[in-house]
Amino acid sequence: MKVHVRVSTSRIAGKGLFAAQDIKKGTRIIQYIGQRISKDETAERLDQGNQYIFAFNDHYDIDGKTLKNKARYINHSCDPNCDIPHPTHHLDCGQTRYSGRRRTQL
What we know:
The chain has one helix spanning 39-47; strands spanning 5-9, 15-19, 28-31, 35-38, 53-55, 60-63, 82-83, 95-98. The chain is globular and about 40 Å long. It is mostly beta strands.
């Protein structure tokens, strides 16, 4: 089942990712996509101001600074309503799941 989300202006900061439908707890929402990079490359890109680095595992991260990656607009929150299952060595397992606490901004 495809979950419908939208990118819109956020009250928190800049843009955010919002649910465009009710989402059942435990549902996969979106995949964080981007270039697989080393930890050394991560440090360089962070120094250059890239804010879209996803910590993937002990060896690699994902640079989500690509226009195709809507997941990069998921904001940090003091009251999060999504979580990320433990990633494996497969890049396509970096999925965000809805934890069921509220339905507004993801």
